[in-house]
Model the fold of this input.
Amino acid sequence: MAFTTIIFLIIILTGTVLLLWLSLRQSRHVAQHRDAVPADFAQVIDLPTHQHAAAYSNAKSRLERVDLVVGLIVTLGWTLGGGIEALTQWGTTLGLSPLWTGVCVFLGFLLISTVIGIPLSLYRTFVTEVRFGFNKTTPRIFLTDLLTSTALTIVIGGPIVAVFLWVMGAMGERWWLYGWVLLNLIQLLAIWIYPTYIAPLFNRFSPLSDPDLVARIEGLLQRTGFASAGLFVMDASKRSGHGNAYFTGIGPVKRIVFFDTLLTQLSGPQVEAVLAHELGHDKKHHIPKLVIAMAVLSFVAFAVLGWLIQQPWVFAGLGVQTPSTAVALILAVVCLPACTFMLDPIMAWWSRRHEFEADAYAVAHTSVDAMAGALVAIYRENAGTLTPDPLYAAWHYSHPPASERVAHIRRLPAS
Done:
């Protein structure tokens, strides 16, 4: 067995075993604390609701473990199992130029990966989410979403892949630098066009019509000096009972979006507090910071890929006998998550810091009670567990656990 193969197996197996262990810790910890509501929440969340959230958390953890095992099998199948090599050989039968053969091979990989993921997605949507009362998606909506996303993959992804493969083939040994610049330009373009052109393909966005809520929110926007392209309500209830709010886009196309489910779960002051939290992300420049961080990480990844693509032993050690630029991209997509999972807790910690900062901004412009009440209501309505395993949360949670977050808000000075 090649040295490269051994290292790859050690990395991917270590990562999978570690994540499975964390998931099991989460399940055990949640189960051990299901029979008592944490003291800080005892007055606002009853025991049946707490136990319902515990059961939902553990159902998701079980599905997470299945997903990890399936992911391991699929990764090994694509690499050492010969899946990428078989796909490459299929591409040679198409009679196309090397560039368009590579595009077809890469799109074939994406489409096959989508098909592989359908069973788990179906189970998550029509079994787990139905069991706990959250699913609103019909089979027709599920199929429409699948076909729409597949069409976007082909229509938008095809030309992007073609440009990437051309850069890899035409720019010499420094292709990775041009590829990195291209990737970041595409990401910025996607942030700009998504709210106006992509999101409406999946959901309907209507102007916020509640006059009292509009007046309240416009007052908040005036106090904070935030300019947006409008206030919109998204018909999230056609797919799920979960509630949320966000702002999206950059520059003049910024949109503030509320899930219609959220508006039915929260009071006016609580909605205002949630929006102030989202504005806090903007005022604290969290999105630009994240974009810069991802640009730095992708620069390193592209530089490493630029070196590895020139090493025949890399391809052979990962089960590929016919190297190409398209195969290099596929290997990057398949192997990168397995090789960078140790960064997850660092990024999660950084994200949680941003959430605390946004909470502080929200409290400064609304009130402690409104923000804390909104969070409790969201955790209650979304069946978020109040008792996650600390190590699991530290590794995975992009938002602080409920107890830490509400306690932090209660310590903040009132506005």
